[in-house]
Each structure stands twice: as C-alpha cells, then as structure tokens.
Automatic annotation (TrEMBL):
It comes from Trichonephila inaurata madagascariensis. This is PiggyBac transposable element-derived protein 3. Residues 8-99 form the PiggyBac transposable element-derived protein domain. It holds the Pfam family DDE_Tnp_1_7. The lineage of its organism: Eukaryota, Metazoa, Ecdysozoa, Arthropoda, Chelicerata.
Length: 101
C-alpha cells in the first residue's frame, strides 16, 4: 500500500457491527472499532522523505482516536512515574503500598 491508502473490513458479531481499518502512514496502522469507520475521510499534513510537506488522506477512526487518546497517554505516564516497589496479587495491598511509600 502507498502512504495515505486505507482499507476497511466490516463484520458482525452478535448483532454488533465491527469495523477493521488498515491505514498506511509511515507504517501500517490497524484499528478495530464498533464506534466509527473509515468514512468520512479527512486530510492530514505529513513530511515525506525529502522533508517536504505533503497532504495525505486519513480515515475517520484515526481522527477520533487522536482526538480522544490524551487520557490513555496521561494514565500511562502517571503509572510509569509512580511505580510500586512491592507487588501483590491482592488488589487492596496495592492501595496500601501506594499510600505508604
């Protein structure tokens, strides 16, 4: 696939429509969604290999993901900053270790 090209496959599981999108940016990106699909297509500016700005097409599901992914990144960075020194299989011990470390 060339950069900006995307393909969508739609299937049903227990009467829920599931959309799988493959989009070629620098690398191939695979997204699965029950919320959004490939259309409407949007545009995004990227740099090519010669450092020129080019406009490529992106699927709607990528746009929605990028808009709402901030909370996931924030959670991941918070978890990385507050590592628990002792691990336990009991969930309530984790709260104890966080409070007293």
């Amino acid at each position: 696939m060339e950069r900006g090209h995307s393909m969508e496959f739609v299937g049903n599981y227990k009467d829920v429509e599931i959309s799988v999108i493959a989009w070629k940016d620098n690398k191939t990106v695979l997204m699965t969604s029950t919320f959004s699909g490939e259309k409407p297509l949007g545009k995004v500016m990227r740099y090519d290999k010669t450092k020129n700005r080019v406009e490529i097409i992106k699927p709607h599901v990528i746009e929605k993901y990028n808009k709402h992914m901030g909370g996931v990144d924030l959670l991941d960075s918070t978890i990385a900053r507050h590592k628990i020194l002792m691990r336990s299989k009991k969930w309530y011990m984790t709260i104890f270790f966080i409070c007293y470390t």
